[in-house]
Amino acid sequence: MSLEIEKIRPLIRRALREDIGKGDITSNLTVSSKARALGIIMAKEEGILAGLQVAIATFQTIDKTLILQPQSSDGTKIGYGDVVLSIQGKALSILKGERVALNFLQRLSGIATFTAKFVTIIEGTKAKILDTRKTTPGLRLLEKAAVRTGGGENHRFGLDDMILIKSNHIEIAGGISETVKKIKSADTGQLFIEIETKNLSEVQEALQAGVDCLMLDNMSVEMIKEAVKMVQNVTLEGIKKPFLEASGKINLENIRAIAETGVDYISIGMLTHSAPALDFSLRLKQLGN
Questions:
Q1: What are residue 69's phi and psi, to 5 degrees?
Q2: Is-catalytic flag, 134?
Q3: Could you report the per-residue pLDDT of 12-27, keeping only the tens digit for each?
Q4: For the whole model, what pTM was predicted?
């Protein structure tokens, strides 16, 4: 999970302010400011580790004197009881960072683990797993990094990445052909153009309009197979064969069948909006007063 930590430092600070508020009342009343401790973060279930850099940065943001020793690395398969990070230093500092660090770990490791399940199921096909923009507000950079850690790939990060014509654009702009015409007549800087289609009639119209990728939205497996055939049989002069992306109502049960249709990509919103968290815990051992 490769990240430029300084880009997410403001996010970490906001998360710490949210959690700590005016101060850790319980710890301040029960733990000596001089107390030192050894903290061990361990996994409580099997999965793919992601977010370790963020957890480390969380503790460093609180107290630069803490000694942090990673015992694993992002992308590693972990099991119950595996230690991923040890922290040594002021007990109060460790307690302040505990929940935020664990929240990042459990959320991001959950996404990486969930993504890896989809990736494993479609092994042997040419399809690649993509995420979407259905991310937690403010956490997109982290959540998309977790998808990559799990073996998936990133779709666009934002509205300024590429041209993706959705059904609402088509409705307002006056149809598929007219929408694509408007885009091609403008100076777009040769941006990649993708268009959403909901049936085979729209697939045919989009093929004739000429785009880089067709999104096959909420189509049945049989309909996707027909769309793949239509693209393979494209013979129109000057029209290139676009990539195909399946999207909508995709889960662990049906993804293999979709991948076997011959699509290039499968985008899955639930990678980030519905991934179950991976459980971690932190245990402290007093080192001195």
A1: -125, 100
A2: yes
A3: 999 999 999 999 999 9
A4: 0.94
